[in-house]
Write a structure and sequence with these properties.
The complex is a heterodimer. Chain A is α/β, with parallel strands linked by helices. Chain A folds into two domains: 49 residues; 75 residues, no CATH class. Chain A contains five helices and six strands; from the N terminus they run H-H-H-E-H-E-E-E-E-E-H. In chain A, strands 1, 2, 3, 4, 5 and 6 form a six-stranded mixed sheet that branches. The longest helix of chain A has 14 residues. Chain B has a six-stranded antiparallel sheet with strand order 5-4-1-3-2-6, with helices on both faces. In chain B, strands 7, 8, 9, 10, 11 and 12 form a six-stranded mixed sheet that branches. In chain B, helix 3 packs across helix 5. In chain B, 27% of the residues lie in helices and 27% in strands. The chains are: A alpha/beta, B alpha+beta.
């Protein structure tokens, strides 16, 4: 996976070529089909394997979760809510998290994590509807 | 387990010469020849918790390859605390290789409501610990090891995964690659959740304290310009260019 991860990370800030993507994929034993989209596809696999960037647009029953949702319910659904304020105090299991109708967990440490901040006296999950969400629906 | 968690709290008092966080660092350094002092994490507890300065408790992590004897570490850490803690304080100390689920639950409770020493007692029965003076610090010490075991709250005040590198050795502006070398994961809070580039700069506002997330040091950042980021959740201060 190391070559794929390295390629994925490089693609976030450097222009690369289709030939290089195919070379890396072959090195990692991955099969590729198609043309220019192969670059993004190989990079997406690498970045997902790395596990520290990107957002989930689908994860289990993500779109069917209640809003607001309790911290322990969110954890039971496999999504870890985590505070990102200065105190970073552990969240109470019964605390409510408001998602604004669109929960969009980050890929952190290889798993879905919902960064949460306190706004107007309530916990709010960070994030907005991604631009490519329609494609996922 | 090849690591040791050392939770401590209430070693200081207002105006103390040595804060609990500093004492934790000093204590970690005393073990540095026999184990790797991986780091120290500060956990913010509920504001009503007795005997925590600014409601913060500390937890050290040592990596010893399973070589050190836990009771001996407890004795040595206890003697160190007796020597350096403020006389008017009531320190608590917990030393363990693994905090049980009850300690994790206790830590989360202590972060969100007032908890008592009586509530800590059942959990402490199975964990090596010491109390000094009135010993109210045992609440924070137990909470600190539980929360560190859980791995989803608190901030690293020290992180020394790589020999010769630590969080205190950086200027205000830090390159992403420098933090990656140290073992800190930099994550974007922007909607695109993109990976910051290695050569990008982060304005740390001289407060480089990564969060403990998934047991790792993680630094959430927000984009402020092309190739420029700032750490999240820190009060803005004027720059002095």
């Amino acid at each position: 996976m190391a070559p794929l991860i390295e390629f994925g990370l490089t693609c976030t800030h450097e222009v690369t070529t289709l030939e290089r993507a195919k070379e890396v994929a072959a090195q990692a034993g991955a099969q590729v089909f198609g043309a220019i989209g192969v670059i993004g596809a190989v990079a997406a696999v690498g970045l997902t394997a790395h596990g520290w960037s990107g957002r989930f647009i689908e994860f289990g029953d993500l779109r069917a979760l209640p809003d607001p949702i309790r911290v322990d319910d969110l954890i039971a659904h496999g999504i870890m809510p985590t505070p990102i304020d200065r105190a970073t105090r552990a969240l109470a299991p019964g605390a409510l998290i408001h998602c604004g109708g669109w929960l969009s967990p980050r890929l952190w440490a290889g798993r879905p994590v919902a960064p949460v901040e306190m706004k107007y006296g309530r916990f709010v999950a960070l994030g907005a509807r991604p631009r490519d969400a329609e494609t996922a629906e | 387990m090849s690591r040791i968690l050392i939770g401590l709290d209430d070693t200081d008092c207002p105006g103390a010469r040595i804060s609990t966080a500093r004492l934790a660092r000093m204590l970690g350094e005393t073990f540095a020849k026999r184990a790797k002092f991986l780091g120290a994490i500060s956990h913010m507890l509920y504001r009503g918790v007795e005997a925590t300065t600014n409601n913060k408790a500390s937890c050290l992590i040592l990596e010893d390859g399973g070589q050190l004897d836990i009771e001996a570490v407890l004795d040595e850490a206890g003697a160190f605390i007796e020597r350096h803690a403020e006389p008017s304080s009531g320190p608590g100390l917990v030393v363990t290789r693994e905090a049980p689920p009850e300690a994790v639950r206790f830590g989360i409770e202590a972060s969100n409501r007032l908890v008592s020493r009586a509530e800590a007692r059942p959990c402490l029965a199975s964990l090596p610990h010491r109390l000094f003076g009135v010993g109210n610090g045992i609440i924070g010490a137990l909470a600190a090891v539980g929360l560190t075991e859980n791995g989803w709250s608190g901030r690293w005040l020290e992180y020394r995964q790589v020999r010769g590198l630590d969080l205190r050795g950086f200027d205000r502006d830090v390159q992403v690659s420098a933090l990656t070398r140290l073992g800190v994961f930099v994550v974007s809070l922007e909607n695109d959740a993109e990976a910051p580039a290695p050569q990008d700069l982060i304005d740390t506002r001289r407060w480089l304290r990564p969060q403990l997330l998934a047991g790792q040091p993680v630094l959430p950042v927000r984009r402020v310009g092309p190739g420029l980021w700032e750490i999240a959740s820190v009060k803005r201060t004027e720059r002095s260019y």
